[in-house]
Write a structure and sequence with these properties.
Structural class: alpha/beta
Oligomer: single chain
Strand order of the largest sheet: 5-6-7-2-1-8-9-12-13
CATH architecture of the largest domain: 3-Layer(aba) Sandwich
CATH superfamily of the largest domain: Glycogen Phosphorylase B
Strand content: 15-25%
Shape: globular
Number of domains: 2
CATH class of the largest domain: Alpha Beta
Distance between the termini: 31 Å
Helix content: 25-40%
């Protein structure tokens, strides 16, 4: 049933030198079909394969697998297949969520077999399903009552059940498909239980406990996406008694885990740090400022591996073709040795022609994506478009451009522009749902804004890509110090959008003069700076010299950063 890989990494001459470090690995074995890179994530956002995540973590997971496939790196991605997903709907100008069932069989997944875990005194059967993609695969566990992504409270029983199911059930699933992980990358602390399952297997099968801990730590990478440890979930000893300890066979592992509780609770970030010797942050700034400490109180050091994107997937094909023909990107979509000189030759006429193609693509997508008024938005080549397309969460501040509706109105009027806002509120976040509806009310209250500001509901991959290729100016204004990386802005830069942003996350990998920087010592100053930068960006699209200046600057500074191939190479260099 399980398809054999067409290639082994070490037989591909094109990338032999690129991955030479793997053959000098300090790990037990090099990557292979039987010992792949295993990538664990509670969230995958891969609509083509029937799995719809909640945001950037899931998008990153899908990009990582696709890039591994392109580079012929053996990788198994382990994630839940949620049997239902939330979709955003609009009614009478108000936003609400609707649950929709999803069937893995409709998306090409094959049932392998089932595994069992113990939770709350019950034996729970989990189906294991798989889908193969040359050197990579998606391996999922699922069951009818598994719930939706991020169902319930982050410290609640159901969330713990989902995480335990992924860890212990997913580790058993690897055995069903004949896989022993060469490395385990834990994407955020929700995947901790996968490493715990490996430690338990080693210790219960006769390995000395100390050696089992050393081996597990040596082969585990913890990738952190959250800046503050206090934001991570914690669980009670009682919850572990019901959901975790019944799945452990080794008394030594149970004792080790029990000793990690403080005042009857355990923080998953603390034990994930303990079980992973390798730790990475997702941007240079994030790796420097993330405030995490181990159980001894020592501050944890993170290796910076900035998130990248699958450039061919997210970038307009005409733009990718142009980059390769002009010597900007090589066949792996990495910047060429001469990319800076090649970027400097890109002129305004070429930029406008490529964006016109992107606008046509965007309009086609928007034909079936009405705005808050039920109207279909169709914009001509000469109409300027601003966009904000990110999760509707507090620190990303999607409402900031609407703090002075008259100022926004003047910018749109002066530049004959439209503004598209899109982003989903996390399920159960009533405060942010209220804030979204307040923004929609402000738009509805002004005759001009109601026809020039469009809220497109049910933000997803399709809409994200359409807006990146079709927009002129993108707005990225997180509170400085709270964005770990972000990748939406990376897609925009690759698609020749002008970036108006605060200096945070992955944007801060390059100097603040690399884009149209929003700054200030307080929010009032930032709002003023944001409007000024929006005006400046709009004016740049009306002047060839300024347009070329900013596009050249963004591409020169950020193309190495946004490359998903670069990200995967950085991980392999770090791991091996």
């Amino acid at each position: 049933m399980i398809l054999k890989l067409r290639h082994r990494l070490d037989t591909i001459e094109d990338v032999e030198e690129f991955y030479a470090a793997i053959n000098r690995s300090h790990l037990t074995q090099a990557l292979s079909e039987e010992r792949p890179y295993t990538y664990w994530t509670i969230e995958l956002y891969d609509q083509a394969n029937g799995i719809r995540g909640g945001g950037g973590l899931g998008i990153l997971a899908a990009d990582t697998r696709r890039v591994a496939e392109q580079m012929n790196v053996p990788l198994t991605l382990v994630t839940p297949f949620y049997p239902s997903e939330l979709h955003q709907r609009m009614k009478d100008g108000q936003s609400y969520d609707e649950s929709v069932p999803v069937d893995y069989k409709k998306f090409g997944f094959e049932l392998v077999d089932s595994v069992n875990i113990r939770c709350n005194k019950d034996l729970v059967k989990l189906d294991v399903v798989v889908k193969e993609f040359n050197s990579t695969r998606i391996l999922s566990i699922t069951e009818p009552n598994f719930g939706e992504l991020y169902s319930g409270d982050s410290c609640g029983d159901h969330r713990l059940y989902q995480e335990v199911a992924l860890g212990f059930g997913g580790y058993q699933a690897l055995k069903l498909v004949g896989v022993k992980p060469a490395i385990m990358q834990l994407n955020e602390v929700a995947t901790f239980f996968a490493a715990l399952a490996r430690l338990d297997e080693l210790a219960s099968n006769g390995m000395d406990f100390y050696e089992a801990v050393v081996y597990t730590r040596k082969h585990t990478l913890y990738t952190n996406h959250t800046l503050v440890q206090a934001a991570e979930a914690s669980f009670s000893y009682d919850q572990f008694e019901r959901y975790v300890f019944p799945n452990l066979r080794s008394k030594a592992v149970r004792k080790w885990l029990s000793d990690k509780f403080e005042n009857g609770r355990i923080r998953l970030s603390s034990v994930t740090i303990e079980i992973a010797e390798l730790r990475s942050g997702v941007s240079k700034l994030h790796a420097r400022v993330a405030n995490y400490h181990d159980l001894s109180g020592e501050k944890v050091k993170f290796k910076a591996v900035t998130n990248g994107i699958d450039i061919p997937y997210w970038t307009l094909p005409e733009i990718v073709k142009f980059y390769k023909e002009e010597g900007v990107l090589d066949k792996f979509t990495l910047p060429t040795a001469e990319y800076e000189a090649a970027v400097e030759k890109i002129d305004a006429k070429q930029i406008r022609a490529l964006k016109a193609a992107g606008r046509a693509f965007m309009n086609k997508v928007l034909e079936h994506r009405p705005d808050q008024n039920g109207k279909i938005v169709q914009l001509g080549e000469g109409e300027l478009l601003f966009d904000f397309k990110r999760r509707f969460v507090d620190y990303k501040r999607p409402w900031l451009p609407f703090e002075d509706p008259q100022r926004l109105k003047r910018i749109l009027q002066n530049h004959k522009a439209h503004y598209i806002l899109s982003g989903r509120v996390h399920a159960g976040d009533e405060r942010m749902m209220k804030r979204l509806n307040e923004v929609l009310a402000k738009i509805a209250d002004d005759e001009f804004l109601s026809t020039h500001v469009h809220y497109i509901a049910d933000y997803d991959e399709e809409l994200a890509r359409a807006l990146s290729v079709g927009s002129n100016v993108t707005i990225n204004i997180p509170i400085v110090g709270l964005e770990a990386c972000g990748t939406s802005w990376e897609k925009d830069v690759a698609n020749l959008c002008l970036l108006v942003s605060t200096h945070d996350g992955g944007v801060a990998d390059a100097p603040s003069d690399s884009y149209l920087n929003v700054s200030g010592t307080n929010e009032k100053e930032e709002i003023e700076s944001m409007y000024a930068r929006m005006d400046e960006a709009a004016a740049a699209w009306e002047n060839d010299f300024d347009l070329e200046y900013w596009i050249h600057r963004q591409l020169t500074r950020y193309l190495p950063t946004v490359s998903g191939a670069r990200m995967l190479k950085d991980y392999l260099d770090y791991l091996f």
